[in-house]
Amino acid sequence: MNIDHETRTxxxxxxxxxxxNSTADEVLHGLDLSGRLAVVTGGYSGLGLETTRALVRAxxxxxxxxxxxxxxxxxxxDLEHVExxxxxxxxxxxxxxxxxxxxxxxxxxxxxILNAGIMxxxxxxxxxxxxxQFAVNHLGHFALTxxxxxxxxxxxxxxxVSLSSAGHHFSPIRWHDIHFEQGYEKFPAxxxxxxxxxxxxxxxxxxxxxxxxxxxAVHPGGIMTPLQRHMPKxxxxxxxxxxxxxxxxxxxxxxxxxxxxxxxxxxxxxxLEGFGGVYCEDCNxxxxxxxDGGFYGVKPYAIDAEQAERLWALSxxxxxxxxxxxxxx
Length: 329
Prior knowledge:
Elements: H1 5-10, H2 24-28, E1 37-41, H3 46-57, E2 61-66, H4 69-75, E3 82-86, H5 92-104, E4 111-114, E5 125-126, E6 130-131, H6 132-147, H7 149-152, E7 158-163, H8 186-208, E8 213-219, H9 233-238, H10 256-259, H11 261-268, E9 278-281, E10 284-285, H12 305-319
Parallel strand pairs: 1-2, 1-4, 2-3, 4-7, 7-8, 8-9
Antiparallel strand pairs: 5-6, 9-10
Helix pairs in contact: 5-6, 6-8, 6-12, 8-12
């Protein structure tokens, strides 16, 4: 395992000024994002909606991508400086079409927030037989970022924020069976997809840094949102997430406003200048996960440089997309 020196030295908490209780509005308080453009995938539901709202209140213009654009427009109807465009992360042709439309407008992206995702769904195959969680949570965003690369490279620099999860503790990359063709398990599949998100961040930051593009992976915390739509109530009760009435039962869970805080912090905080390629949670850079198995911090395999480079090469081959940069050795 090879955690490169820079990532290892940066993967420690800093004096961020915020914590797990901070909200997205508190994180952005005092920051003027006027003239800044953000693209937020799935920015009309759950954490994405709270992220869009907070960014707009701070002055940003937000492009929200949506698999269901009519539903997105309805959810965002009360907000100014927001536009909606169609994008299905499970469909490479949809991703290419969105990227082409965006690039044709000649605009630059200051913040690309890869927020959309699915969790613990029944076994589903998309594209050429890809496991859906790996495809949507990782491959779709990988392709989108590569295709939007010309809009990310500009004088002001850009940040790419990807939603990972403490769920990455469930599984490293299963190189022998990435698409779970030898037997599907929904939580290991979710965990692998979130490990992939973190590894994508490591390699994207390495390749993007010379061009002013920095990347961050974020665990938002436990929050009840539509992300749990594939999980039956009985399962969530058994896990202690909710009670029989459907109310949140886990005291460690955050509100959506608190859950969105880490990703807007990663996207906009001036305290992250000079950082990149790190995994964050609770509005701070995470520490390494404890060896005793505690469910916090980042696992070494999720920020391993060799694994990140290997996953990038595989993802580029699967999606037939890559960014035109030097730096591959």
